[in-house]
Amino acid sequence: MLLALDSATRQAGICLFDGESVRAEALWSSSRVYHTEWLTPAIAEAFARINASAADLTAVAVTTGPGSFTGLRVAMSVAKGIAAARGLPIIGIPSLTATAEPWRALGLPVVAMLSAGRGRHAWQCFPTPDMAETTLPLGPTIETIQGIAAQFVDYQGPTMQVVGELTVAERRYLVDTLGVRIHVASVAQAVRRPAVVAELAWQRHRAEEYDDLDQLEPLYLRLNASP
Description:
Blueprint: E1 2-6, E2 11-17, E3 22-29, H1 36-49, E4 59-63, H2 69-86, E5 90-93, H3 95-100, E6 110-117, E7 120-126, E8 141-144, H4 145-151, E9 160-164, H5 168-178, E10 182-184, H6 194-206
Parallel strand pairs: 1-4, 4-5, 6-9, 9-10
Antiparallel strand pairs: 1-2, 2-3, 6-7, 7-8
């Protein structure tokens, strides 16, 4: 069984996944990004609900960012602590990859966004395979919602699916600015689920593709800058 942790932004959660089913999942959104008070109790409660413990784990996964400085550090520290204590492999999953993954099967380019505070968003475009050579801006980078929209005003390709953390006003701005170029997922549809993090990590777990416990670090972005 694999434990996935995600506290990259104000939205956070955990998942226990066994390769066949989501055994337990918890998701919450906090007005603060510390998550320290909720993460470890949520793990303990998830274990209790399915009558399991850390002894049943075979791997640990954690989102690596982009995200808030403190938020990323919380889950990363807990994941590394569990992995080190139990001698388990650790797997890092990019936050924007987890955000976009449920939408990739639509066959459309996906633009994933995460709130970065102060009206800014970390974002990344995931093109379809036949758009591999496109000049479409890809990211990941961090910009204001106005700056992101400006990147796509001349875009003439297939409709882009926009997902992630956006306010109602930000959704309206993108639709008003870009029109038929985009489809914006609803709030409920766009939630970044820890179960997706777990499923992506399980694929790497089966292939024994692990990260180095000492070298795994969060990804931070600066305004208008790629990593």
